[in-house]
Write a structure and sequence with these properties.
single chain; 340 residues; alpha/beta; Rossmann fold; six-stranded mixed beta sheet; 35% helix; binds adenosine-5'-diphosphate
């Protein structure tokens, strides 16, 4: 039998039934992977960034570069300063000292809405979806430069109607992608916690950003939905975006991060690829000591992590196919919602 003739019996399983392995991005840094190490192509460069609250120094970052086109995880114990650093970089809080740039241009003192216009968006640890607006209206709020918002142009509907339709189309494409299209006309308040996280991520993409910063995207999300969220984050990189995310789940970090930055007590205490960082005794001391159930010696690729990893939720491991996980997750969330 020639190699390109396939009988129904030896045909491969239908595509879409298993996750497609996606390569990690390597060769991101220059020289030894130490805190503050230079990157080959940094998208963010921060210097001497400090922020104190009363007597507490929340952030004290000497030097940090975030590599472009990769997925970087920011990890560290509670109170390490991760959210505060996100707030500073995105203009939601003011630093006491320091400079930082995005795409080579200084962002210090630039307000949040202008930061977003430059292509840097973030989501929040606690979701900020506006409950009394519909899912679609939440999405439309994410779009920028809407002509209808300008006073004079707003009085001439022909100027904004076509743009509004275009924004609606773009929103619908994203909602479909995040499996929220059936909820477009529902109030955001009616969504489950996991769906609100998905909505926030979808909404952040309305601005067509270059850098997406996600603060604990998995927190409060039904475990059955995590595979779907992981895939969405990997998709962002495939579409050419840079991702910086905060996460506590080491399984997820190892699974999707190309680079890991570790914070403790406001400082950067380690940097490196996930495998190396998780073997670093300083990291184990500063952070992973509290997570001894993780087998730090197990180093797996993305897919084997899903298939058989002692740190994976046992139930999730059993249902290894990503599609099953996604669909089950959505069904479960819907059941949960009906039960309320
Ligand atoms: N608005 C604030 N007012 C006072 N203290 C704050 C504020 N925001 C953060 N902190 C303090 O700064 C430190 C870092 O907090 P945070 O950035 O939220 O840490 P993480 O996100 O790593 O858990 C903590 O000690 C926290 O209590
Ligand atoms: Mg936080």
């Amino acid at each position: 039998m020639s190699s390109n003739s396939t009988s129904p019996n030896d045909a491969p399983p239908a595509t879409g039934s298993a996750p497609i392995p996606r390569a990690k991005t390597t060769g991101l840094h220059v020289g030894d992977a130490a805190p503050g190490v230079a990157k080959v192509d940094p998208i963010i460069v921060a210097d001497g960034v400090r922020r104190s609250f009363g007597g507490v120094t929340a952030v004290d970052v000497e030097h940090l570069e975030i590599p472009r086109g990769a997925i970087t995880a920011l990890i560290g114990p509670n109170g390490a300063g991760k959210t505060t650093l996100f707030n500073l970089l995105t203009g939601f809080d003011q630093a006491d000292h320091g400079t930082w740039s995005f795409e080579g241009k200084s962002l210090a003192g630039v307000p949040a809405y202008k930061v977003a216009r430059r292509g840097l968006v973030r989501t929040f640890q606690l979701t900020k979806a506006l409950g009394l607006l519909t899912v679609m209206d939440n999405m439309k709020l994410g779009a920028q430069h809407q002509r209808g918002e300008k006073f004079w142009a707003g009085m001439i509907p022909a100027l904004w109607r076509s743009q509004d339709a275009e924004i609606g189309d773009r929103a619908m494409v994203l909602l479909k992608k995040f499996k929220l299209d059936a909820k477009a006309d529902d109030f955001a308040a009616s969504l489950s916690g996991g769906q609100r996280k998905l909505l926030e991520m979808a909404r952040s993409l309305m601005t067509e950003p270059t850098l997406v910063m996600l603060d604990e995207p998995m927190a409060g999300v039904n475990p059955a939905l995590t595979q779907s969220l992981l895939d969405k984050i990997l998709d962002l990189k495939d579409e050419g975006m840079t991702v910086l995310f905060v996460e506590h789940d080491m399984h997820m970090v190892r699974h999707i991060a190309d680079w890991v930055v570790v914070m403790a007590e406001g400082r950067i205490v380690a940097e490196g690829d996930p495998t190396t960082v998780m073997r670093n005794p300083a990291v184990v001391d500063a952070y992973l000591g509290a997570h001894q159930e993780l087998d730090l010696g197990v180093v797996t690729g993305r897919i084997s992590v899903i298939e058989a990893d002692p740190t994976t939720n046992a139930e999730a491991s059993a249902a290894a196919a990503a599609i099953t996980l996604v669909n089950d997750g959505i069904a479960e969330e819907e059941d949960e919602e009906k039960g309320r």
